[in-house]
Amino acid sequence: MKNDTPSHERFIELMLFLFACVSIISVIGITFFIFEEGLPLFVHVNFFEFLLSSDWSPTADNPSFGILAFIIGSIFVTTISLIIAVPIGIATGVFMSEYANPKWSSIVRKGIELLAGIPSVIYGLFGFFFIAPIIRTLTSSDTGLGVLTASIILGIMVLPTIINTTEVSLRAVPRELKEGSLALGATYWQTIIRTLIPAARSGIIAGIVLGIGRSIGETMAVLMVAGNSPIMPKGLLSNTRTLTMNIVTDLKYAEVGSLHETSLFTTGIVLFIFILFINLLVHYFMKKSLERTQGK
Amino acid sequence: MVENNKLSAKRVDLFYGDFQALHDVSLNMEKNKVTALIGPSGCGKSTFIRCLNRMNDVIEGVTIHGDILYDGKNIRTDFDVIELRKQIGMVFQKPNPFPMTVFENVAYGPKIHGIKDKTRLDEIVETSLRDAALWDEVKDRLHKPALGISGGQQQRLCIARVLAVNPEVVLMDEPTSALDPISTSRIEDLIDVLKRDYTIVIVTHNMQQAGRISDKTAFFYQGVIVEDGPTEKIFFNPENPQTEAYITGKFG
Amino acid sequence: MNIQQSTRRAKREEKVAKSVVYLFVFLTLSVLVWIVGYVLFKGFVTIKDTSYEVTPSSIESIASEKYPEEPYLLIVHDKVRVDEILYEELIEMYTKRRQANWGDITQQNLKIWPFMYAGNTSFYDAASELVTSEESDEIGDHVSYINTPEEALSYIENVEGSAGLVPVGVFSEDQLKDVKVVPVRMVGVAVNDGVTAIIDNMQLREIRSDEVDHLFDGTYTNWNQIGGPDLRIVPIVYQDSSIYGELTTQLGNIAEVYTDKDDFISTLKNTEGAVARVLFKDLEEEELTSLSIIKHEVKRNLTIHYLIEEPARSGAWGGISTIIINTLVLIIFTLVFSSPIGVMAAIYLIEYSTENRFIRILRLGTETLAGIPSIVFGLFGYIFFVELLDMGIGFISATLTVTLMILPTIIRTSEEALKSVPNTFREGSLALGATKLTTIYKVVLPAASPGILSGIILAVGRVIGETAVLIYTLGSNYELVSSPTSSARVLSLHIYNLFAEAISFERAFSTATVLIFMILLVNYGTNTLIGRINTQQRS
Predict the structure, then answer these.
(1) What CATH number should be reported for the domain whose range is C311-538?
(2) Which chains reach chain B with 3 or more Cβ–Cβ distances below 8 angstroms?
């Protein structure tokens, strides 16, 4: 800054700077309070028992706090949802950037925006009243609720993320690469699958990881369709409870200030660490994708 | 001599939507010769060369009238576009190696055309790189990313990539415009060698380059071939005053 | 044309791959259409099978057996949205110890104010015989007694939620013309015990409403045709001068007619496979075995009343007016906090900062904030705003938490909008001697405003849909939010509560429909704005 800037302008600049710091301060604040509330659990409960036991009976006379079942539940549901969403998402992204004419691409884009805007409780309703009965009819499941239904709903919910990032990364691939491949006598599909997608790889992976983050952090929709039993999921049709579900379910009846309440914040820490790790991955891949498209 | 035409364009008109980019272009390109297309920016020479292996098919809104014959057969009606491009390769203005290793870049074409045998691929890659005069420089880094080699090497890699498909014609769209003088001269040397086995059509805005490497030259101006003929004639004894003006650097 | 085999294979592969891609796109779009279509459909229409003790046919003028020549009408207040009433509901209305509410019948939160016409003792006796049963034989204290037709008419006109049985005879024809008369469903289907016997773990308990007539017109001749035992169907009919008389008009001609009631009842009890229509009251008094009647009902779900009435009974009655307002208030206050912070942060990041390590950390902060799941925000809001700052579960805690949550959306879109303002704008203004601040305020911000606005609308979309963060910061009080610390309920939370507490799934869907329309509005808004930005940039 030059010295002749009027003092009130410098004051306003300072204000703007402070506002710019709100996000990072919030992140630090959230991290601090979640850890501050959750870490004291380990005074009473063994760290490894917390992570590696699947016995969750926080209100028993001899309470036990093991969240392994929920960690597995979260990972299980997220994995299946990605297995569903990734092929469909990438294919739709390919369609939008490579095959669709502007009219269709705009129609699909509006559709994707709507899909992204639908609140998670509505996905939950849809899952419970539409998907679950189908699962119930097609399989041996009694309720139709559980890992599979939750995964289908989550798969639909993360589709927009994957589609958007795929489309954006494919569009960022230089035209020269496409022409280079076509000029060698490759079909359009060979060009897409062997040149464009590998070139857009980092961006697409970043989108998938972003999808993982959304999937693992989603609460309401899974809460309504996953069955919510605090047990180790045994298969696709098994009821399950994820980390997020554990927090939202138990906070309702945990006594304020009890070890039970603390354990829910500790569950939050585990979820938070998952998310931070995922964020770092996204950041890494985004950076890599940026480097790629901007050459070297 | 007529039978010796590898490629010939007959009265080609090309439109981008409503805009006509090529007017009534006719040109013969002889076998195992280098044909240079010269002219100021936007004169249609790149558009024309892209017609020869139907690269304009990719662009929306392009309509083409007139015929282009390859070995006497119409490239539009007598060829499948994939087959055509296998036989008529193309090197672009900016080196565009794929974001994969040197080896994979060269093996890309043979692989998509169904060659799976590993030793056969190794063989093709080595021959192509040797033909492109790049083997000695990259033989130790075949499995390193292609984006890591220099711009001139990248362009020769792109040439090797085209040769690996075993084409008969190589189209080059200003292949040296993005390169330094040393790399440029190496590519020019390469073109001189390649014309023994291939028919070459090259777009260049570099007069001297056209003069040095080509056997025939066509001068494009505003979508029309103003004059074409043996390079010496175009350069030293042009019939058209516009050609002369361009050659001598009065415009362009 | 000579095509090599490898080319042919590649083309075949392309064809297959392309169809798969198109299939997946189709799948994506159809999933969208399914979800939106399904929710809207369920939101507007309810289709379900309901089990009743009585048949769908209803009668306007009813009379007791003791006073068959004195027909009564049930008249109700105009505002009550009822088009028919079950006989048991009529009895409850008069005899329930706690005053009944129309909510149980019409979902409108309105107390029922019943009255009885007691012009003389016989009127009173006749009416009380109609509205009591053996089990509920005491008329409640909340029932008013009325002695003249005029009094009855003014009561029904002036007391909201009023309803009363009045003898037709005492009114002149014109008097009842403008009064809402509600027919009563009072006919049940009684069968001989043997029909409902358990055979091979199967028992006939219910019958579809459209099958009832077929029992009497000879279409069905054996109970096993509708899932019962192997018994012949023996339809019988009781006929006298009162209501039972009316029933016979609906019959086919194969039924045996009885004119003596005791005879009729004993035949019904003693003849294997016998079936008859009887008054609901007789089912109870004569201890008859009856079949439930399944009625396939198609009803409108989301109505204008649902939008404008206040919720009651956890949302089971009334509408969602206060919840809609709460949602809007939450949106407005969240924006009041988040948009200035977000936009100013973006201004700093784009206009003032130079790219350095610290700024990269600020950006990483925004990115990280965007990735934090809403339940973690909920936990933070709960521990920080609710408990530590002691703001309690309520409006202010929720607003502040949601503000943090949507901040990244606003910062990012504002950054993009500011970035897209050409530098020539800034240089032009600076060259005229304007200060940097004036330039930003007068030139850059106006140029970037459509983009910033579209980001804010995008944020609105997020607020509308959020649930998990609000459960432990906003609570679930569905009354109108009255103070910063009062607990409140928004649409998405309402949907969840209606669902989770199994209050009403139909209402969950009609609320979801309202929510979807809000989202459509938001999407339309952003699209319009983005369209405007595009045309602006082109010109």
Answers:
(1) 1.10.3720.10
(2) A, C
Helix (H) or strand (E) run with residue A37 in it: helix A22-38
Q: Are residues A209 and A73 in the same domain?
A: yes
Tens-digit pLDDT profile for residues A152-207: 999 999 999 999 999 999 999 988 899 999 999 999 999 999 999 999 988 999 99
Residue B61 makes CB contacts below 8 A (sequence gap 6+) with: B16, B17
Nearest chain A Cα distance for residue C144, angstroms: 45
CB contact under 8 A, B112 and A183: no
Determine the distance in angstroms separating the CA of A55 from the nearest CA of chain C, rounded to an integer.
23
Q: Does A182 touch chain B (CB under 8 A)?
A: yes
Question: Which residue has tokens 């204000």?
Answer: A15
CB neighbour list of residue C259: distance below 8 Å, 6 or more residues apart: C238, C239, C240
How many of the other CB atoms lie within 10 Å of CB of B158?
Answer: 29
Task: Name the residue with tokens 């925006």.
Answer: A113
Closest-CA residue in chain B for A289? B99
Domains of chain B: 2-247 (3.40.50.300)
In this prediction, what percent of chain B has a pLDDT beyond 70? Answer: 98
In a domain, A24, yes or no: yes
CATH number listed for the domain at residues C187-300: 3.40.190.10
Q: What span, in angstroms and rounded, lies between the C-alpha atoms of B156 and B189?
A: 11
What digits encode the pLDDT tens for the residues C172-203?
A: 878 888 889 999 998 889 999 888 888 878 88
Which residues numbered 162-181 in A keep a CB inside 8 Å of some CB on B? 174, 176-181
ipTM of this complex > 0.85? yes
Show the tokens assigned to C331: 């949106």
Query: Which of the other chains make 3 or more beta carbon contacts under 8 angstroms with chain C?
Result: A, B
Other CB atoms within 10 Å distance of the CB of residue C227: 12
